[in-house]
Specification:
single chain; alpha+beta; 21 strands; about 450 residues; Arc Repressor Mutant, subunit A; six-stranded mixed beta sheet; Methyltransferase, Cobalt-precorrin-4 Transmethylase, Domain 2; 13 helices
Length: about 450
């Protein structure tokens, strides 16, 4: 039995059935890649023994159903019960379909069929991924700072990815240089001491305003503090966090005689929003940097570039697609991203558990904004079990805590873009887990905290 649950980058298949295998190949390749483990059910428990010959035959047939073929490689998976067959699927720069034209992506632990509009958006984003490995005019291998490289390699090794071979081979492998050693966009942004020489848009502007509007104390043009933050991406994240922390109100609580620091915004939520902005912004947009705006009642982090591919505000928690997969992987290996694809839901959880309202997300065609609100109500601090909920259920819980109950109609208003059946199943799940109590029947049904 494997301890990890299936998710955005991990799929379990109970048998060597060709159809589900082909769907998983397409879904993972169209997203950020991942691992398929055969012979396990969705709870990670062994089902039937699948021999290598059987798996090879299924993979060959499944590959024939993919257009174009999906690259993959065998990856044995060790469990307490023995070795299982694993298939590693890298992220692909191509758009993959099944032979009948259907296009899938991973949505949580499932494969989701894309609509026509989503397919067009995904195809457009696939074409932009090559920007990361384009060589940078005027850049040389000497522009990659050895101290920054050493820090990256040290932290990468601590995460279990020790250097095998030469540094030059690794730089090519991660997309930081081409075969001749010329730095790429990825290489300059991650390892150049001052990448703003080549990409002026890669820094951050921090502005603190004295009120709730973008103006000075007298109501005119002005601000309380303004910082321009530059450097390689990892340093930009650290420097921006330090500036935000300096300006955050910090208090303390005493729990069982132990003093605990209480920040204006949860640390994880701020760092996650910050890292996401740096990792996922569109670096092709010149003339605009990431903006951090701190007001007396909220913190806004504005990232140039709309949401990539098929991503929308409604599927941020359950699905994941990177505009810059190599930059994301670099920050992951550096330790700035804990686990790929799991940050947004934890950001929401941290905010709700701290008594704040959930963060708000605004997706415009050329910018994406995350807003964290600092209003904190001790009465609405959520219990730890909210971590096992999706974003919709968390919003329902917040509504119940503020209003005493929720009806199906009220839940539909909160999540207007979600199907009625999905919302019904959300509430059934909360009742099954003894979180909510169902009162009444049919049109008179409402739910309260149990």
């Amino acid at each position: 039995m494997l301890n990890k649950k299936p998710g955005q980058r991990l799929a379990y298949l109970p048998s060597a059935e060709i159809g589900p295998l082909a769907e998983c190949l397409v879904a993972l390749a169209n997203g950020d890649g991942g691992l398929i483990v055969m012979g396990l059910n969705d709870r990670g428990r062994p089902t039937e023994t699948i021999w290598e010959e059987e798996a090879e035959g299924a993979l060959r047939e499944a590959a024939r159903r993919c257009r174009p073929p999906v690259p993959s490689e065998w990856q044995p998976v060790e469990t307490r019960q023995g070795m299982l067959v694993g298939i590693n699927v890298p992220r692909s720069t191509d758009l993959h379909t099944l032979d009948d034209g259907r296009v899938f992506i991973r949505s949580g632990s499932l494969n989701r069929l894309l609509t026509g509009e989503e397919v067009r958006s995904l195809a457009t984003s696939k074409n932009t991924a090559e920007y990361e490995i384009e060589t940078v005019p005027g850049a040389r291998r000497e522009d990659l700072d050895p101290d920054i490289l050493r820090d990256y390699l040290d932290r990468r090794e601590r995460r279990g990815a020790a250097l095998v071979g030469s540094t030059e081979e690794l730089l090519f492998e991660i997309g930081a240089t081409d075969r001749e050693g010329t730095p790429t966009t990825t290489g300059i942004l991650l390892f150049c001491r001052n990448p703003q020489i080549f990409f002026p848009q890669s820094g951050i502007v921090f502005v603190k305003f004295p009120g709730t509007e973008p103006r000075g104390e007298d109501g005119g043009i002005g601000y309380g503090r303004r910082d321009e933050i530059s450097g390689p991406l990892a340093r930009v994240v650290e420097r921006a966090w330090n500036v935000i922390y300096e300006e955050m109100r910090v208090g303390a609580t005493v729990d069982k005689l132990e003093r605990k620091e209480l920040t204006e915004y949860p640390r994880f939520a701020v760092r996650e929003a910050l890292v996401n902005a740096v990792a996922h912004r569109d670096y092709r947009i010149r003339g605009r940097r990431i903006e951090i705006r701190m007001y007396t009642n909220r913190l806004e982090i504005i990232s140039p570039g709309g949401l990539p591919g098929y991503m929308t505000v409604d599927n941020l928690v359950e699905e994941h697609f990177s505009r810059n997969p190599r930059l994301v992987n670099g920050l992951f290996q550096w330790g700035y991203i804990e686990e790929l694809g799991l940050g947004i839901d934890q950001m929401i959880e941290e905010m709700v558990q701290g008594g704040h309202e959930p963060p708000t997300f605004n997706a415009a065609p050329h910018a994406f904004t995350v807003t964290l609100h600092n209003k904190r109500d001790e009465r609405t601090i959520a219990p730890k079990w909210t971590g096992s909920m999706n974003e919709r259920q968390t919003r329902a819980l917040t509504f119940v805590r503020e209003n005493g109950s929720i009806t199906n109609r009220e839940y539909k208003k909160l999540c207007s873009n979600v199907s009625t059946e999905t919302l019904r199943l959300d509430l059934v799940d909360l009742v099954t887990r003894n979180i909510l109590l169902k009162i009444g029947s049919k049109k008179g049904t409402y739910y309260i905290l149990k």
